[in-house]
Write a structure and sequence with these properties.
With 153 residues, the protein is mainly beta. It is built from two helices and ten strands, in the order βαβββαββββββ. It has one domain. Helix content is 10%, strand content 48%. The protein has a five-stranded antiparallel sheet. Strands 2-7-8-9-6 form a five-stranded antiparallel sheet. Strand 7 and strand 8 form a beta hairpin.
Length: 153
C-alpha cells in the first residue's frame, strides 16, 4: 500500500482525516502543543482500515502505520481526562471533529475524541491539518472493535 498523505482545509477534508485515524493509538508523550508555533503535533500508530476492509485481498492483513498529525493555527489547547505528566499512557483516538465559532467564520474548535471520555480541544483560527505516514506498516493481530460494532471480521 502507498503511504498516506492528506491535507485538510475544511470540515469535509477533516472528516476524511478522522476516518483514517479512527482507532489510532498514541502515547501521551508523543503529543505536543507548541504554543509559540501555534501548532499541535502527534505521532500515532494508525490502523490501516482501507487495507483491512479491502474485499480484493484474499487474506485480510491487519496493519498499523506510524503517522504524523499536524494541526496549524492553534491558539489554545484544553485537555480533559489526560495526565500530561504520564508520558507512557496510551490513548485510542475515536474521531476528530470541527465546531465553528460562527457559520461564516473559519475559526472554531477542533476536538480529538479518545476512548474513556478523554478529549483534546484545540481553539483554531482556521482548519489546516496534515496527516502523513512516516514509514512502513507492521502487522497487528487484531482489528479494533467497538461494543456496538456489527461489522464482521
Amino acid at each position: 500500500m502507498n503511504q498516506l498523505k492528506l491535507i485538510a482545509f475544511d470540515t469535509e477534508d477533516l472528516d476524511v482525516v478522522s476516518a483514517h485515524l479512527q482507532d489510532a493509538v498514541v502515547r501521551t508523550g508523543d503529543m505536543a502543543y507548541l504554543q509559540r508555533e501555534k501548532r499541535f503535533a502527534a505521532i500515532l500508530g494508525r490502523f490501516d482500515w482501507s487495507g483491512s476492509l479491502d474485499e480484493r485481498v484474499r487474506r485480510r492483513r491487519h496493519e498499523r502505520r506510524q503517522s504524523a498529525l499536524r494541526i496549524e493555527h492553534v491558539l489554545k489547547a484544553q485537555y480533559t481526562g489526560i495526565d500530561l505528566g504520564r508520558a507512557e499512557t496510551i490513548l485510542s483516538l475515536l474521531a476528530i471533529r470541527f465546531e465553528p465559532t460562527a457559520s461564516d467564520d473559519p475559526s472554531g474548535f477542533i476536538s480529538l475524541y479518545f476512548s474513556g471520555s478523554t478529549t483534546i480541544r484545540l481553539e483554531v483560527e482556521c482548519i489546516e491539518t496534515e496527516l502523513v505516514d512516516l514509514g512502513p506498516s507492521w502487522r497487528t493481530r487484531n482489528m479494533p472493535r467497538h461494543p456496538d460494532d456489527d461489522s464482521s471480521p
